[in-house]
């Protein structure tokens, strides 16, 4: 059975027709072409499909599209301001926390969710917990953790008018 759903993705409104069994991941990637949301495992194990849904980090492969009706969604594509990368994206590049890039969008979205919730002051334990559901086979996690702390400092500097 098909349903019309209305979702707001990266501040833009979309009306999509989706079957009852389609996931938010499928709608974001296939219908709306937000390919930064990666299709890794379809079982909620890898974190590559992580998005922020109504202020909470979720694995979009585990959310039915019809459950997202009326939702506000942020994907990796919504972080940058035109050609200007978001500080979290910049920090991941600067700290070498990306390699093949497949896990990077999910890691960055998890970092964004964490930094939003901790007001840019996470503990080491909070950082490790935030990225626990994201798997990376290339970089290891030390550079990713360092990138999150670098991003927190960049965001703090931006808030305090320092660049």
Q: Total strand count, please?
A: 5
Computed CA radius of gyration, to the nearest angstrom: 16 Å
Residue stretches low in confidence (pLDDT < 50, at least 5 long) are none
Number of domains: 2
- Structural class category: alpha+beta
Specify the overall morphology.
globular
Note the run of SSEs as H and E.
EEHEEEHHHH
Instruction: Output the CATH homologous superfamily of the largest domain.
Output: Beta-grasp domain
Side-by-side strand order of the widest sheet: 2-1-5-3-4
Q: How confident overall, as mean pLDDT?
A: 95
- State which percent range the strand residues make up: 15-25%
What profile does the largest beta sheet have? Answer: 5 strands, mixed
- CATH-derived architecture of the largest domain: Roll
- The separation of the N and C termini measures 52 Å
What name does CATH use for the topology of the largest domain? Ubiquitin-like (UB roll)
CATH class of the largest domain: Alpha Beta
Percentage of residues in helical conformation: 25-40%
| Tally of separate helices | 5
């Amino acid at each position: 059975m098909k349903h019309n759903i209305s979702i707001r993705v990266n501040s833009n409104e979309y009306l999509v027709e989706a079957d009852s069994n389609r996931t938010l991941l499928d709608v974001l990637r296939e219908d709306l072409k937000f390919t930064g949301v990666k299709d890794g495992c379809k079982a909620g194990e890898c974190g590559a499909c992580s998005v922020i849904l109504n202020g909470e980090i979720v694995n979009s492969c585990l959310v039915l599209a019809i459950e997202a009706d009326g939702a506000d969604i942020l994907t990796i594509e919504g972080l940058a301001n035109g050609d200007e990368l978001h500080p979290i994206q910049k920090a991941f590049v600067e700290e070498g926390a990306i390699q093949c890039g497949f896990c990077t969008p999910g890691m960055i979205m998890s970092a964004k969710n964490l930094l939003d919730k901790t007001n840019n002051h996470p503990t080491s334990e909070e950082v490790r917990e935030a990225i626990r559901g994201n798997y990376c086979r290339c970089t290891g996690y030390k550079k990713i953790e360092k990138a999150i702390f670098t991003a927190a400092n960049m965001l703090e500097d931006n808030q305090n008018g320092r660049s």
